[in-house]
Design brief:
Layout lengths: L1 H24 L1 H7 L8 H24 L5 H23 L2 H24 L3
Length: about 120
């Protein structure tokens, strides 16, 4: 189980770092690809992007370095919350394909949180 959690942490970390970069620092280019971004102010997009980047780093760095490794589970919990809020946002806008992605990422992040809090704590 520990190996599965490590793999999920690494993959989710990369996914959230990439998404965070697009949401927070590549706004103009990302707006041409994601229509929902036109409905969100730039400062909020930057906040979301930085939060996703920090969450992605938090999935891996504390566990790898051994410095406050319990933060890994909290990072997964925070990313789960971000995905819940994102799914609600897309539901309100009727963007159902985006909700599927949010729910998949939510399930994976929640599994990592549960795994690191209960199954195989660090």
């Amino acid at each position: 189980m520990n190996i599965i959690l490590w793999i999920l942490q690494a993959l989710l970390g990369l996914a959230f770092i990439a998404a965070g970069y697009n949401h927070g620092f590549n706004i103009e280019k990302a707006r041409t690809q994601m229509q929902w971004m036109t409905a969100v102010p730039d400062n909020l997009l930057r906040f979301i992007g930085v939060s996703e980047i920090l969450g992605g780093l938090g999935l891996v760095l504390p566990a790898v370095t051994g410095i406050l490794p319990q933060l890994t589970a909290w990072a997964a919990t925070g990313l789960s919350l971000i995905m819940i809020l994102a799914a609600l946002f897309h539901l309100r806008r009727g963007e159902y394909p985006a909700i599927v992605i949010n729910l998949v990422l939510l399930a994976l992040a929640a599994f990592v949180a549960y795994g690191r809090f209960v199954l195989v704590p660090l």
